[in-house]
Design a protein that fits this description.
With 710 residues, the protein is of the alpha+beta class. It has 31 helices and 13 strands. The strands form two sheets. Strands 5-4-1-2-3-7-6 form a seven-stranded antiparallel β-sheet. A six-stranded antiparallel barrel has the order 8-9-10-13-12-11. Strand 4 (79-82) and strand 5 (88-90) form a beta hairpin. The longest helix is centred in the C-terminal third of the chain and has 18 residues, at 675-692. It starts with 27 loop residues before the first helix and ends with a helix. The relative contact order is 0.04.
Length: 710
């Protein structure tokens, strides 16, 4: 029998434990430097605004291979690559190779210089919440005239398994980024500075209107997906990614399906898929975030907030959830809560320009235009190509009466987006307020050229024509605005004013009627219709309109003032005084209200009250000739001859051709013993009365001259 003996081992020295070396995450600055060395700009030499980016991945002799997005090099003509040292080289169009089914291509250039190539990372290990960095070069624009290297931090939202890719083969989604046109084809790097994907494009989902921000999502293609479809490329890089093993549908797959439905505006379907992703991965913050977005679009803002709360509970530093919750809170009227959320998003990610933009919008709505301007300025500092931030800062500056600053901002917004009709409209408004009417018309013309059916542009151009004295031109523009938008209450209102100016009273009333029908709470339409009714002798109808205007807006001083006139005409002097008093309480600088109240107080025998009102009218308007004249008459009647003389002197200093003042100053001078001065004033008065055709007053002056000469 053969026995096997187990021999004991003899260990020499200490026991050794083998430890896999840790992969150190680089600092942001280190990754930035790597990206700067491997990222290139690709331009059309005949049109340098047509640009993209690329990544150097291989060198063979003096031939370098660059990988980029296929749509960057699709034209295949006049292409050049600009290297980090600013050297440029032509791209051989015959060597442009599109990777099958992907928005990816490789191009080649030749150089004897030494350039760094990208280190390929294991993109299969890139998962949701992985920190990434995006590199690239912005395209040349009116604002960005000398494009420089752009580097920004983001976070992976999802990476698909085989079969759930988006169109063009995009299979990695990331958020929290600030990219600009021209960065397509740039590098997506991990925290070790390794290339894990190529940036393809940005998908922008507008939150509501253009001025309230966008949700920006980046789409790219993982580097292993590229190498699997082009094995020879991988062999040349010394990298051979493992084959994809078919697996059951996972959370990321449902996330991708939900995202695809979301951008297709199938929000209910998106919610179903995001819910499935959450079921498979209860800590899937991105799925909670996007389900919140879909719920918000369907009007379920509280449900959206609940989802954002869940995401924040899982990850207290998930700034996108704060950002989106801010918008939902804003939609529910919680503006302070929204500001708090945007502030938290900024605290976590100080380079998130959209959060500054949205916080600025709310600050402006709350009347803090200086705070809003500060936010928009910060957003522009982060992204100099941020057209909406320039536009919004223009609005805030306009609110602060800084029309020149507003014009500058609208001009920048237009330079970034030449088809921004709203920017032309608002710049036109600012030009108009600065009395540059032709500049305003030019801007409105351009807005109409961009949007021929833009009723507001015609309306505003009509306002300028009216200001220039061209009432018919104004009416023509209002007609066009109403034709384009039959429910445009303001256009009817403005046409009513123009028709009133050309004495088409019935047309004006008809327009004010229509304006009120479309907007029953349009107080000024009631005021103007009241004016037309009063002019036609219908003071009761006018009073009814002014009363309606006051009911809508109790602070409408014009309505009180005009109702005071109508009441006075009907003999209701106490009611008139009450209305003038209300008008003065609303606007203490309303000289006409003081003046009219003084007339009625005088009629009612309240001479001192009348003098006080005339005095206040003169204090507001030192050139108020009639106020001096009327106060002088009361002083004369009260026997205060010197006060009367002073007022008549002041009136004639303002208006040297006022016959009534000469007549009454002649009377005062005679009473003061200045007979020759009195006769001189009466002679001047008689001549002015004669020139004006006032025969009766002329005869009275002559009779008084004869009397004083005796």
């Amino acid at each position: 029998m053969k026995y096997h003996y187990a021999l004991s081992s003899i260990l020499v020295g200490a026991s050794v434990i083998l430890i896999q070396p840790l992969v150190r995450a680089l600092s942001t600055q280190e990754v930035e430097q790597i990206g700067k060395q491997i990222t290139v700009q690709i331009v059309d030499s005949k049109n340098n605004s047509n640009a993209g980016s690329g990544v150097i991945i291989k060198r063979a002799g003096n031939t370098y291979t660059v990988i980029t997005a296929y749509h960057v090099v699709q034209s295949k003509t006049n292409l050049q690559v600009i290297l980090p040292d600013k050297q440029s080289y032509s791209i051989n169009s015959n060597n442009i190779k599109q990777l099958p089914k992907l928005d990816l291509a490789t191009v080649e250039f030749s150089s004897n210089n030494t350039y760094k190539t990208a280190k390929i990372g294991n993109s299969d290990q890139t998962t949701a919440s992985t920190t990434i960095y995006i590199t690239g070069f912005p395209a040349r624009t009116a604002v960005i005239t000398n494009p420089e290297y752009f580097f920004n931090k983001g976070q992976v939202s999802a990476v698909s398994t085989k079969g759930s890719e988006q169109r063009d083969g995009y299979n990695i989604i990331y958020g929290g980024i600030q990219t600009v046109q021209g960065m397509s084809g740039g590098a997506v790097l991990n925290e070790q500075g390794e290339l894990v994907a190529i940036h393809g494009r940005v998908d922008e989902q507008t939150i509501s209107d253009k001025n309230q921000g966008k949700i920006i999502t980046g789409l790219g293609t993982t580097i292993y997906s590229a190498l699997r479809l082009m094995p020879a490329l991988g062999d040349g890089l010394g990298v051979r990614p493992p084959d994809v093993i078919a697996t059951a549908t996972n959370a990321d797959d449902f996330y991708f399906k939900g995202y695809d439905k979301y951008i297709g505006k199938d929000y209910k379907g998106a919610i179903v898929d995001y819910t499935q992703a959450i079921r498979l991965n209860p800590k899937y913050t991105n799925a909670y975030n996007n389900r919140g977005l879909a719920r918000d679009y369907l009007g379920d803002k509280q449900g959206a907030i609940n989802d954002y709360n869940s995401a924040i509970k899982i990850d207290a530093n998930y700034f996108l959830a704060y950002y989106n919750r801010g918008y939902s809170r804003y939609g529910l009227g919680d503006k302070q809560g929204a500001i708090s959320d945007y502030t938290q998003a900024i605290k976590i990610n100080p380079n998130y320009g959209d959060a500054y933009n949205n916080r600025g919008l709310i600050r402006s709505e709350l009347g803090d235009n200086q705070g809003a301007i500060s936010d928009y300025t910060q957003a522009i500092k982060i992204n100099p190509n941020y057209g909406d931030a320039y536009y919004n800062r223009g609005l805030a500056r306009k609110q602060l009466k800084d029309n020149q600053g507003a014009i500058s901002d609208y001009t920048q917004a237009i330079a970034i987006n030449p088809n921004d009709a709203d920017a032309y409209i608002n710049r036109g408004n600012a030009h108009s307020e600065l009395a540059d009417k032709q500049g305003a018309i030019s801007d409105y013309n351009q807005a109409i050229k961009i949007k021929p059916n833009y009723a507001l542009a015609y309306n505003n151009r009509g306002l300028v024509y009216y200001d220039l004295g061209d009432e018919q031109g104004a009416i023509t523009n209002y007609n066009q605005a109403i034709k384009l938008d039959p429910k445009f209450a303001l256009a009817y209102y403005n046409r009513g004013i123009a028709r009133a100016k050309v004495k088409d009273d019935q047309g004006a009333i008809s327009d004010f009627n229509q304006s009120i029908k479309l907007n029953p709470n349009y107080a000024n339409a009631y005021v103007n219709r009241g004016l037309m009714r009063s002019q036609s002798g219908d003071n009761q109808g006018a009073i009814s309109d002014y009363t309606s205007a006051i009911k809508i807006n109790p602070k409408n001083g014009d309505a009180y003032y005009n109702r005071g006139i109508a009441r006075s005409d009907l003999g209701d002097k106490k009611g008139a005084i009450s209305d003038y008093t209300s008008a003065i309480q609303i606007n203490s600088k309303d000289a006409s209200a003081y003046y009219n109240r003084a007339i009625i107080r005088d009629d009612l025998g309240d001479k001192q009250g009348a003098i006080a009102d005339y005095t206040q009218a003169i204090k507001v308007d030192s050139n108020y000739t009639n106020a001096y004249y009327n106060r002088g008459l009361i002083s004369l009647n009260l026997g205060d001859k010197q006060a009367a003389l002073n007022d008549f002197n002041s009136a004639l200093k303002i208006d040297p051709n006022y016959p009534n003042v000469y007549y009454n100053r002649g009377r005062v001078k005679y009473l003061l013993g200045d007979k020759s001065g009195a006769i001189s004033d009466l002679q001047k008065a008689s001549e002015l009365f004669r020139q004006k055709g006032n025969t009766q007053a002329y005869q009275q002056a002559l009779e008084l001259i004869i009397k004083y000469q005796q």
